[in-house]
Design goal:
The protein is α/β, with parallel strands linked by helices. Helices cover about 35% and strands about 30% of the residues. It has a single domain, classed as Rossmann fold (3-Layer(aba) Sandwich). The strands form two sheets. A nine-stranded mixed β-sheet has the order 2-1-3-4-11-10-9-6-7, sandwiched between helices. It has a two-stranded antiparallel sheet with strand order 5-8. Strand 3, helix 4 and strand 4 form a beta-alpha-beta unit. It binds zinc ion (ZN). The site of zinc ion has 5 residues, from helix 5.
Length: about 250
């Protein structure tokens, strides 16, 4: 009888884990998602915004697209949004817009994005970098062949996705030790000998106040978004971050 109880508890825990994982990734319907895009055009911000908007609409999310960070000053939008996806490489943001964005995320709105669109925006804004959890500094060698290693096999964002390789920019980033690293890449000595063997976060999650933050450094151009693993990680990360207010 005692053994049966123990087995029941184990099954209950396993079932809860599976259920929690699924819950995290199945709650995008009816979520209000704001997509803000722009900045350096060779990261194809509009292509990215259109692709992710189309996917979100297929999932019955309520999508608003904006080409300007001025929308962060719209209190009605910011008070009602569940998730902000931003894709603005470099560029600048005003102090007021930046504060409004940080207030929303700290208050429980999710934030998600990839590559330079989230991880190399507003280079002079350190509070922004503190919120995202990392800042791009270099991609040694430009476009190179590299591997992405899944670090958290059981995390719902990566579950079932195997290690993979791609030919793209291998982002070297300054990262916040507070991030939860989900996938990494290892640098060789080919371009900069002193970084040989460095294991760099590629995909992470973190908190900023009450908000969930998701980042992937993958996604330099249109072709990268067609890589099944890259896009799957992106949409799962977006879905997870959209559940931020459920925290
Ligand atoms: Zn790039």
């Amino acid at each position: 009888m005692k053994k049966l109880t123990q087995i029941s508890i184990v099954f209950f825990l396993l079932f809860s884990l599976i259920l929690n994982g699924q819950n995290d990734l199945s709650q995008i319907k009816n979520k209000r998602v704001l997509i803000v895009y722009g900045g350096w055009e060779w990261h194809y911000p509009e292509v990215f915004a259109t692709k992710i908007a189309s996917w979100l609409e297929d999932q019955k999310a309520i999508v608003t697209l904006s080409k300007s960070t001025k929308i962060y000053l719209d209190e009605h939008v910011m008070n009602n949004v569940d998730l902000i996806i931003q894709h603005i490489t470099m560029s600048e943001i005003s102090e007021l817009e930046s504060k409004a964005l940080q207030k929303a995320i700290a208050g429980g709105v999710g934030l998600a994005g990839c590559h330079g669109g989230l991880g190399d925006a507003f280079r002079n804004n350190t509070e922004y970098q503190y919120m995202v959890g990392g800042q791009f500094v270099k991609h040694p060698g430009g476009q190179v062949d590299y591997s992405v290693k899944i670090a958290k096999l059981q995390n719902p964002i990566l579950k079932g996705i195997n290690n993979f390789t791609l030919h793209s920019e291998q982002y070297y980033m300054h990262v916040d030790p507070a991030i939860k690293v989900l996938a990494t890449t290892r640098f060789s000595k080919e371009h900069d000998s002193w970084i040989e063997g460095i294991e760099m976060p590629v995909v992470w999650t973190k908190s900023y106040g009450k908000g969930r933050v998701f980042y992937s450094s993958l996604g330099h151009n249109k072709k990268d978004f067609e890589i099944p693993e890259v896009w799957e990680i992106m949409i799962r990360g977006v879905t997870w971050a959209a559940g931020s207010k459920m925290n």
